[in-house]
Design brief:
The chain has 569 residues and is of the alpha/beta class. It has 16 helices and 20 strands. The strands form 4 sheets. It has a 7-stranded mixed beta sheet, covered by helices on one side. Strands 5-4-3-2-1-14 form a 6-stranded mixed beta sheet. The chain is elongated, with a radius of gyration of 27 Å.
C-alpha cells in the first residue's frame, strides 16, 4: 500500500440488538459479526454504543461486579479478533471512575480505548449520573490513514471531539450510537450527521443500536455519509443487519499526529469480494411507528422471559390495535383475547371483538363479570347507604376485569398487555388497578388520533379490524349510553392541546393563544396535572413521541403549581 496513493478501506457496521445485562450473549453476537466482517474482507467493523453491556444499563453501572464482568468479556472477545479492527462499545474503568467507552480490538488484544466526552443528561438520558467525561482525543492510525472514534452525542454538537479529531488529521469518523427512536428522529439524526460530515469534509460511519429496552426502542438505520454530507448507504429500521462499504480515503501523510494511537499495518493484502450495493428504503411515518411498537412489544416480552400475552378485547379501537401488534410481534398462537361483558356491554361490542379475534386467528375467551359485579354491589350496599351511583361503580367493573386478566396471567404465565392510549393516560381517563393493571402498556405513548391511523395502516396490510370499530363513538361502556366525549373534549381537539402542554411544555395561556378556547385548555391542563399519581403507578409503555411519560417527563406527584390559576388537585 503506497503512502502517496488513496486506498480503499472496507468498513462494516454491525447493527445489533443487544440485551441489557446479557454480557455473554452480547459478546457472542459481537464475535459472530466480527467473523462475518472478516469473511467479507472488512478492515474495520464498528458496533453500537455499549454493545457489550446493552444500553442503557442504568444502576447496573453501580455494581462493581457488572463492570468487572464486562471487562472480562471484553478481554475474551479481544483474544479472538484476527487481522481486523473491531470497535466495540463497553464500560471502562480507570482511577476509580467509569467511562462510556469504545474499545479498539486488534490482533488478539485491546489496542486502545476511547472515552465518550459529551455525556447527555436530558430527556431519557442520565449519563452524568454514572460516567466521567473522557479526555483522550480518540484518533488512531491504521496503515496510512487516520480515523477518529466518537460515541453518540460526541457528533451531535458543533465543535468538541470532531474539531480535535479533524485537527489531528482524521480522514474518517467512526461513531458508535445508541439513539432511541421517536417519530421524526431519523430525519433529525440524518440532517445532523450529514451537516457535520459536510462541515468537516469527512466521511462519517454511524452505527446505531436496534431493539427494545423497557420503554425505549432503538431503530438502527445505521448509515455511511461521505465527506460532502451525502448518505452513501443505510441499513433498514428495526432489524439486525450488517452494512459494508468501501471508502476511498486519502492517506494521512505528514498530517499523522503523535497523539494518534498507531495500530500499524495489515499483515498482508486480502482479496476483497465485490460488494452488492443495497440501500434500505425509509418507512412511511405511520409504518415506522407501527414497526417501533411491534419491536418494542416483542423484545419486552421475549427479553423478560415470557412467551404468551393476554389482553382484554372490548370491541374498541385501542384493544384492536394492541391485539394486532401482539400478533405481528409474537405470532397468533401466543395471543389470547378476553371479552368481559357487564350489563352495559353491547351486542355490537361482542360481535366486533369476536370478529377481530377470528380475523387474527387468536384464542378468544368470554368471561362475564356480571355475577362478580353484583356481589361487589351487594357487599358494599350497606356502606354506600344514601349515596347515588357515580364513578365508583364504573371503576369496580374495570377493576374486576383487571383481576380476571391478572388471574389468567398468574395461572398460565401470560403477560398482561394494557390497552390505554396516551390521550387517556394524560387525562386520567383510566382506572388505577383496573384497565391500567398489567405488565406492558403498549400504546401508552400513542395519542388516540394516531391510534386510528395505525389501525388503518394495519388494515391496509391485511383487513383484520372490523370497519364498525373505526366508525362507532369511543366508549368505556361502564354506564348506560356512555361516550368518551361525555368526559373529554373530542380527541381531534384534545390531542393537539395535550401535545402542546406535555411535549412542548406550553402554558395554558400560550396554548389558548393558538386559537383554543381558554376554558377547554384549562380543563385539559387540570386533568393532566391532577392524575400524575396514576401515571406513576402505571406499567411501562413504548416511547414513540419526543416526550413520553416516565423517563422523559418526571413530574412530582405532590405538586401545588398550576399555570391555570388554581392550586391543588
Amino acid at each position: 500500500m503506497s503512502g502517496k496513493a488513496a486506498a480503499i478501506t472496507r468498513i462494516a457496521c454491525a447493527q445489533m440488538n443487544a440485551t441489557v445485562g446479557d454480557i455473554e450473549g452480547n459478546k457472542e453476537k459481537i464475535r459472530f459479526c466480527i467473523e462475518r466482517a472478516h469473511a467479507h474482507a472488512a478492515d474495520i467493523v464498528v458496533f453500537p454504543e455499549l454493545s457489550l453491556t446493552g444500553y442503557p444499563p442504568e444502576d447496573l453501572l453501580l455494581k462493581p461486579s457488572f463492570i468487572a464482568d464486562n471487562l472480562t468479556a471484553l478481554g475474551q472477545l479481544a483474544a479472538a479478533v484476527p487481522d481486523i479492527i473491531a470497535v466495540v462499545g463497553c464500560v471502562d474503568k480507570a482511577g476509580g471512575r467509569i467511562f462510556n467507552a469504545a474499545a479498539i480490538l486488534y490482533r488478539g488484544a485491546v489496542a486502545g480505548i476511547y472515552h465518550k466526552k459529551l455525556l447527555p443528561n436530558y430527556g431519557v438520558f442520565d449519563e452524568k449520573r454514572y460516567f466521567t467525561p473522557g479526555q483522550r482525543p480518540g484518533v488512531f492510525a491504521y496503515a496510512h490513514h487516520m480515523f477518529g472514534v466518537t460515541i453518540c452525542e460526541d457528533i451531535w454538537l458543533a465543535g468538541g471531539p470532531l474539531d480535535e479529531q479533524a485537527r489531528l488529521g482524521a480522514g474518517c469518523i467512526l461513531n458508535l450510537s445508541a439513539s432511541p427512536y421517536h417519530m421524526g428522529k431519523q430525519k433529525i439524526r440524518e440532517q445532523t450527521v450529514c451537516r457535520q460530515a459536510r462541515h468537516y469534509g469527512l466521511p462519517i460511519v454511524y452505527t446505531n443500536l436496534i431493539g427494545g429496552q423497557d420503554e425505549l426502542v432503538f431503530d438502527g438505520q445505521s448509515m455511511m455519509i461521505d465527506g460532502r454530507g451525502k448518505v452513501v448507504v443505510r441499513l433498514p429500521a428495526f432489524r439486525e443487519d450488517m452494512l459494508f462499504a468501501d471508502l476511498q480515503l486519502k492517506p494521512a501523510g505528514n498530517r499523522k499526529s503523535k497523539a494518534a494511537l498507531n495500530l500499524g499495518c495489515p499483515r498482508g493484502s486480502r482479496n476483497k469480494p465485490v460488494l452488492i450495493r443495497r440501500d434500505a428504503e425509509s418507512l412511511e411515518p405511520v409504518a415506522e411507528v407501527y414497526r417501533a411498537l411491534a419491536v418494542g412489544l416483542r423484545d419486552y416480552v421475549v427479553k423478560n422471559g415470557f412467551k404468551k400475552v393476554v389482553l382484554g378485547l372490548s370491541g374498541g379501537i385501542d384493544s384492536a390495535l394492541v391485539a394486532c401488534l401482539a400478533v405481528d410481534a409474537l405470532g397468533q398462537d401466543n395471543v389470547t383475547g378476553v371479552f368481559m361483558p357487564s350489563r352495559y356491554s353491547s351486542q355490537e361490542s361482542l360481535t366486533d371483538a369476536q370478529m377481530l379475534a377470528e380475523n387474527l386467528h387468536i384464542e378468544f375467551q368470554q368471561i362475564s363479570i356480571e355475577h362478580i359485579y353484583k356481589m361487589y354491589l351487594l357487599v358494599l350496599e350497606p356502606h354506600f347507604t344514601g349515596r347515588g351511583k357515580d364513578v365508583t361503580e364504573e371503576n369496580l367493573q374495570a377493576r374486576i376485569r383487571g383481576n380476571i386478566l391478572m388471574a389468567l396471567s398468574n395461572k398460565f404465565g401470560w403477560l398482561v398487555l394494557t390497552t390505554g392510549n396516551k390521550s387517556e393516560m394524560s387525562t386520567g381517563y383510566a382506572t388505577l388497578y383496573g384497565d391500567m393493571a398489567g405488565g406492558l402498556a403498549v400504546i401508552k405513548d400513542v395519542p388516540k388520533t394516531l391510534v386510528y391511523r395505525l389501525c388503518a395502516f394495519r388494515n391496509s396490510l391485511h383487513a383484520a379490524i372490523p370497519q364498525r370499530i373505526f366508525t362507532k363513538p369511543p366508549t368505556a361502556e361502564l354506564r348506560p349510553n356512555q361516550k368518551d366525549s361525555d368526559s373529554l373534549p373530542d380527541y381531534a381537539l384534545l390531542d393537539p392541546i395535550l401535545k402542546e402542554y406535555i411535549e412542548n411544555d406550553r402554558s395554558s395561556r400560550d396554548i389558548a393563544g393558538k386559537g383554543y378556547a381558554q376554558a377547554i385548555v384549562e380543563k385539559v391542563v387540570r386533568l393532566v396535572d391532577r392524575t400524575e399519581y396514576k401515571r406513576r403507578q402505571a406499567p411501562p409503555g413504548i416511547k414513540i413521541t419526543p416526550k413520553a411519560f416516565g423517563r422523559d417527563r418526571r413530574m412530582p406527584v405532590t405538586n401545588r403549581y398550576s399555570d391555570t390559576g388554581s392550586t391543588g388537585a
